[in-house]
């Protein structure tokens, strides 16, 4: 008896990818309206997937599962012949890769012609005589922002020719991957996962196979890990259940893939979106220590811009421990749900921390009028694919929040580019900068200025007080009417001076570097950055190009939308997205449009200039002396992994005598065992853990972490133990 099954990932373009979780399940019926079908001859049958009346639309993606006997390999055809404007028609469909073909995953992009809402989809199957089987739909319904903030729902089961008793295989609705630094994990959402007995990642053409250890599982979620380093490209995730049924999903199509920035000819590293045909735009740049794994990660949240049609499906989220090797969640922050203030686009993110929470401020664009507003989402655990954002459902700042902004709509009200500055001396006090349309100070009907607000309640981000606008950002001061992306940074050489950087919206790709780069103004010494009068900001006068200030350094040529970051080790970085590619050899628009990251080096105190250089190899440099110079830190690498034999070993390398401590933590952050606490001499040392705790008893199965602490940094490795 042969059982064949297949799942189809259907991305419904327009609004159906982020809707409220419904109370009822999806409806799955034959075109006759019945849940059963009988025939004796080969038959062409039509299957209908339909949203319940209480739902606005079908979810953004779903799996169509089937198990059949004597049916051969079934392949669905999308039926879009109906005149129903809300019926999904196929926009694009293909086997996307060798891995997907091997996994029997057919990806179809769907859209409803003439309508923003897909409420039904029809599939045609050619079923042979003598066959029998059953179908079911399993869906991933997004509830709010967040990589895994969703609910799994399923339809009832429909059958043909009496169905069969064989169970459906485990359904993989979503597979998210994460590099653990010395290991690899897969987090799966789906249905029927509790019956899974084996998980493996298989390479192209079955050239390699790596089993994973299941560390947590229930019916709708499964997590598995391995200590192996896996190439994600063209790999297949395979699951086997107690009944012997198997399922698979391509890791190439996972939300979290892998990419590496391109080293340019200039003084930066360049991050690029991993999907061909997508480029980066406005972004946020941040670093934190993750709460669970205690890793130091750099983060980029950026607009994903599709070059072919200009669509922007949301913010991508990339992270790296060394600014060179990046992993990406392509759906880091999707647009809001239908009818909300951010349902069409999310733009121009900025990240700020307050207490235990991390806030991502962004500009949202609504569906109806293209009006722009500013709001935020928050998380208490900024990490990788497992970051869960809780979105504030109403904007915190709109055009109506100010007394001076233009109220009229010319292609939507203009308000975007939030930048949140913590008060340097008062904890819990924040200032909000933004760009907004104005007619009060400039002759242009589409002029924009930089506005300013302050949070009304200490420690709260929900209510803000209008403080007017910066007079120095009007056309009379800058020389151009439209500016975007305001940002403030502290001058390290002169501690009482601030810089304001912003972009000229009307700038075009030019072979003149001075007109194709970031503009800046500096605040007089001792003046407060929330001083909105123009008298203290004319230093130098006007808004000169940053290129001219840094000349002959052409690093910032073509930059748009800058971000400043002082990392946890005191290093300072300036980044910008290369709006027209990388200008090379006097010609602009050549090369990759991405996010360029440079390290800042301030010159001698008293000189406010700085130079930009390509960031050092942060993986090998994590300690910084008080004078700002870097020195090589400790290295840790696993050399033996035999936990069942009680041997897990690491090789430690230090360049000079160094005091270190090495502990084993459980998943709750408790120290299970201290392996090393003392001073190591220069050279190599091997440390072995016998998988027992401090009392000498073997530790239980689960995930453990080996943490090497030393002056200036830490090293962390995951250790899955399966008894």
Name a few traits of the molecule:
723 residues; mainly beta; seven-stranded antiparallel β-sheet; six-stranded mixed β-sheet; 3 helices; 47% strand; globular
Question: What's the main sheet like?
Answer: 7 strands, antiparallel
- Beta percentage is over 45%
What is the CA-atom radius of gyration, in angstroms? 28 Å
Number of strands: 51
Q: How far do the termini sit from each other?
A: 36 Å
Strand order in the sheet with the most strands: 14-15-18-17-16-19-20
**For the residues shown, what is the average pLDDT?**
77
Shape type: globular
* Structural class by SSE content: mainly beta
Indicate the percent of residues in helices.
under 10%
Q: How many H/I helical runs? A: 3
Low-pLDDT ranges: 1-24, 90-97, 112-116, 143-149, 441-445, 617-632
Quick structural overview:
The protein is mainly β and 723 residues long. The protein contains 3 helices and 51 strands.
């Amino acid at each position: 008896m042969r059982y064949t099954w297949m799942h189809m990932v259907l991305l419904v373009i327009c609004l159906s990818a982020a809707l409220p979780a419904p109370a009822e399940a999806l409806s799955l019926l034959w075109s006759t309206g019945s849940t059963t079908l009988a025939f004796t001859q080969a038959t062409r049958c039509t299957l209908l997937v339909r949203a319940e009346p209480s739902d606005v639309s079908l979810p953004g993606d779903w799996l169509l599962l089937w198990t059949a006997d004597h049916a051969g390999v079934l392949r669905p055809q999308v039926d879009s012949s109906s005149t129903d404007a809300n019926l999904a028609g196929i926009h694009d469909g293909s086997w996307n890769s060798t891995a997907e073909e091997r996994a029997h995953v057919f990806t179809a992009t769907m859209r409803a012609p003439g309508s923003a809402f897909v409420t039904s989809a029809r599939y045609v199957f050619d079923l042979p005589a003598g066959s029998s089987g059953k179908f079911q739909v399993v869906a991933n319904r997004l509830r709010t922002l967040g990589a895994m903030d969703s609910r799994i729902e399923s339809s009832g089961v429909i059958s043909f020719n009496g169905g069969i008793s064989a169970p459906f295989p485990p359904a993989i609705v979503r597979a998210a991957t994460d590099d653990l630094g010395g290991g690899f994990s897969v987090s799966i959402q789906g249905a029927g996962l509790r019956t899974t007995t084996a998980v493996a990642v298989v390479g192209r053409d079955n050239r390699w196979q790596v089993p994973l250890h299941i560390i947590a599982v229930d019916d709708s979620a499964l997590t598995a890990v391995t200590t192996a380093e896996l190439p994600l490209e063209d790999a297949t995730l395979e699951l086997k259940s107690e009944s012997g049924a198997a399922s698979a999903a391509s890791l190439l199509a996972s939300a979290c893939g892998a990419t590496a920035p391109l080293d340019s000819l200039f003084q930066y590293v360049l991050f690029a979106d991993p999907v061909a045909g997508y480029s980066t735009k406005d972004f946020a740049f941040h670093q934190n220590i993750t709460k669970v794994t205690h890793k130091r990660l750099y983060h980029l949240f950026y607009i994903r811009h599709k070059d072919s049609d200009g669509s922007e499906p949301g913010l991508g989220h990339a992270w790296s421990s060394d600014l060179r090797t990046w992993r990406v969640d392509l759906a880091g922050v999707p647009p809001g749900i239908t009818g909300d203030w951010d349902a069409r686009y999310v733009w121009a993110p900025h990240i700020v921390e307050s207490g235990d929470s991390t806030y991502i401020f962004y500009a949202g664009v609504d569906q109806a009028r293209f009006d722009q507003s500013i709001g935020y989402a928050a998380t208490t655990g900024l990490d990788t694919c497992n970051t869960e954002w809780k979105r504030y459902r109403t904007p915190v700042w709109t055009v109506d929040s100010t007394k001076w902004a233009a109220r009229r709509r010319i292609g939507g009200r203009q308000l975007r580019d939030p930048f949140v500055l913590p008060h340097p001396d008062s904890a819990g006090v924040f200032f909000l900068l933004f760009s907004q349309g104005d007619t009060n100070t400039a002759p242009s009907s589409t002029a924009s200025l930089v506005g300013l607000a302050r949070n009304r309640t200490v420690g709260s981000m929900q209510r803000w007080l209008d403080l007017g606008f910066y007079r120095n950002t009007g056309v009379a001061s800058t020389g151009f009417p439209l500016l975007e992306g305001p940002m403030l940074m502290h001058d390290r050489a002169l501690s009482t001076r601030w810089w304001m950087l912003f972009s000229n919206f009307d700038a075009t790709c030019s072979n003149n570097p001075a007109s194709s780069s970031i503009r800046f103004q500096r605040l007089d010494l001792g003046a407060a950055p929330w001083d909105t009068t123009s008298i203290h900001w004319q230093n130098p006068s006007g808004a000169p190009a940053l290129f001219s200030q840094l000349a002959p350094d052409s690093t910032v040529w073509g930059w748009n939308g800058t971000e400043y970051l002082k990392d946890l080790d005191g290093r300072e970085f300036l980044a910008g997205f290369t709006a027209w590619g990388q200008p090379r050899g006097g010609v602009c628009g050549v090369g990759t449009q991405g996010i360029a990251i440079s390290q800042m080096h301030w010159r001698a105190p008293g000189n406010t200039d700085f130079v930009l250089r390509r960031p050092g190899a942060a993986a090998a440099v994590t300690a910084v002396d008080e004078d700002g110079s870097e020195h090589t830190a400790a290295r840790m690498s696993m050399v033996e992994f035999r936990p069942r034999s009680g041997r897990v070993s690491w090789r430690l390398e230090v360049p000079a005598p160094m005091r270190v401590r090495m502990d084993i933590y459980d998943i709750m952050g408790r120290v299970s065992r201290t392996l090393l606490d003392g001073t190591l001499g220069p050279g190599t040392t091997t440390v072995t853990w016998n998988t027992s705790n401090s009392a000498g008893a073997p530790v239980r199965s689960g995930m453990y972490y080996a943490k090497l602490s030393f002056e200036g940094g830490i090293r962390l490795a995951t250790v899955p133990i399966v008894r």
